[in-house]
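ping. complex inputs:
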Amino acid sequence: MSIILNHVNHIYEEDTAMAFPALTDINLEIPDGQFIGLIGHTGSGKSTLVQHLNGLLKPTSGEIYYNGADINEEGFNKKELRSKVGLVFQYPEHQLFEIDVFSDVCFGPKNLGLEKKEVELRAYTALKQVGIADEYFYQSPFDLSGGQKRRVAIAGVLAMKPEVLILDEPTAGLDPKGRDEILDQIAKLREETGMTVILVSHSMEDVAKYVDRIIVMNKSRVLFDDVPKEVFRHYKELEKVGLAAPQITYIMQELKAKGLNVDTDITTLEEAKEAILKALGKK
Amino acid sequence: MGIIKTKDLVFEYIRRDEEGNVEGITKAVDEVSLDIKQGDFVAILGHNGSGKSTLAKHINAILYPTEGTVWVDGMDTADDDKLWDIRQKAGMVFQNPDNQIIGQIVEEDVGFGPENLGVPTKEIWERVEESLRAVGMYEFRKHSPNKLSGGQKQRVSIAGVIAMHPKCIVLDEPTAMLDPNGRKEVIRAVRALNDVENITIVLITHYMEEIIYADKVFVMDEGKVAMEGTPRDIFSQVEKLKSLRLDVPQVTLLAHELRKSGLEIVDGILTKEELAQALGL
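pong. complex structure:
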């Protein structure tokens, strides 16, 4: 099963003088269980793209298929789609509103019309999945730290038991430890549940470390779609569109230029360490 | 006395329950004494909730000390009569560019500050021009701000502050919402203001790479200054920073890992060129 985008176009304010293409001829296939990084400079179309995946926006033309069914066809159950394709917006903690953490996470599944017991079980499981300890369950969400609030907000989406989880810059504004904690938990969760994860990110280091596939957006189009190593090989083109390679890649290029025999397509710290030790004859 | 000085600064939040009864008191800033010299580039690091933003908000009198004193260019921030002078001397730039821009056109937005100071019209336009040039946004002066990228918007916000002719700019995570290019543009503009205009910079950030050129780094934890020193002093202490929920630049971390694997490399490598040299290349 999968998500398929077939010649998807989206034009904001079509038929006006302000018409602006946000998506142009997008063709993608997203199979189950992939961990995808979606990158692109501000305004490249990333957010517009993810809002199409759960039917919040309709394409101006083209089709989107979820498990074989066209989601914009009449009679398609969009409510169900939105529980299957969970979208965590930027700064999701701004959407917390309940009197305590547990009720906040219950809100989504309760609206699915599930039994109370099932609702509570889901909320409990989701909070555990994001690493929120029991003692916080009955605190006001507003008394938590920034990183904790964000995890509670993610739990709210997980409690819907999505098959696809989309996170729009889940680590913006978090301290380095908070960043690692959230991404480690998401990676672990994906391993355990086999769900598809789409991570929208401005951090090339995070993307290089976690995902299997990178989709690069530029000016409403898909510029690259490949495994991280291949995508980052185009670092010169990435720089032209406001992006970059991970810092490690630039370090390796410097070392190579100075005469050390290392590959310049290395993207993670672990790989870099091994390659340098090997080149120096220490391994 | 430096441009910014704090002495035994304490700031307490009073937590209340739903009925308004006092539940407890949180010390967000706890006995902080700093002295920042005119023209310094100072970075403040610290995990979420460590007190760094609360500290920063004292520098332009958005918050007042519960105990202790803050002076900006010799003026006590608790002195109400000096409020506008203090805010003119110490400008502030926040995380979200969209919350800071009010003008319909870039040059109008930048002119808003000096206009409120009662600067004569001719001089306002001079200030707008020089400020936009200082951040490399002059060619966009006739544009609408909402058509700009995040990095460009932040540079307009910074220009709006410079047009007030401040001696000091406090930037609270100005790059948190930007893409890599936007981050680079903003940091480059900030460094240029420091180098060329000698404006004191206080930069709060979670991106370790942005502060390797700072003159001094303060690391906050639980409202106190937990570490202070040059970037090299601070980033030499990888394990300590990690225990404070922070990190070091990637090149520093790589050098540290290589050292742990037995290579003879000094700690506190800050650039890729230094690493190449340390490896004997």
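Chain A has a mean pLDDT of 93.
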